[in-house]
Amino acid sequence: MQLPLYATKEWWENRDKAIKEECNGCGSDLDLSGKLVPNTLYGLDISKKCCCPHDHGYIHGVTWLDKIFTDVMFLYNMTAVVLNAGMNSKWYSKDKLLVIPRLLRATKYFIAVVEAGDRSFKDGKETVSNEKIITFKGEFR
Fold first, then answer.
1. Is 80 in a helix, a strand, or coil?
2. 57, 66 in Cβ contact below 8 A?
3. pLDDT for 101-115, tens place per residue?
């Protein structure tokens, strides 16, 4: 069984356009992290399935709870991608053996966006609302 990915409805409806126009992969273009943060978790590409929906959420989010929602969605998607790769492998394969190290790195990516993502989330916005609502409506696919 494959774990589905989670993203906003707007992401699923505009995925190809968003990947071309909004996504820069993992890391931010506002600092060196865009050059230093790999798009992979020990060889497993997470750029389009995890980092791009996260970028989309940062661009379109309007409340601080949208940021938190986007960060948690990012962690869930990284976890799903890692576990899916591991579940579909033989016990001795690289994808099976790297599940735990990849999950640990995913946790580091999550902590980084929670701790240091405010600047990227605010980029291009006049204000970010403190209203206690999540404006995003998402779905699994």
1. helix
2. yes
3. 999 999 999 999 999
9-18: list long-range contacts, CB under 8 Å, 24+ apart: 9/137, 9/138, 9/139, 10/56, 10/60, 10/136, 11/53, 11/56, 11/57, 11/138, 12/139, 12/141, 18/52, 18/55, 18/56
C-beta separation of 141 from 13 below 8 A: no
Helices (H), 22-127: 33-36, 52-60, 64-87, 94-97, 99-116, 118-122
Q: What is the DSSP letter of 5?
A: P
Q: Is 13 exposed, middle or buried (0-12, 13-18, 19+ CB in 10 A)?
A: exposed
The partner residues of 7 in beta bridges, in order of sequence, read 139
Closest CA to 118 of 48, 61, 50: 61
Q: What is the pLDDT of residues 37-51, one digit of tens each?
A: 899 999 999 999 999
Integer Cα distance of 68 and 117 in angstroms = 10
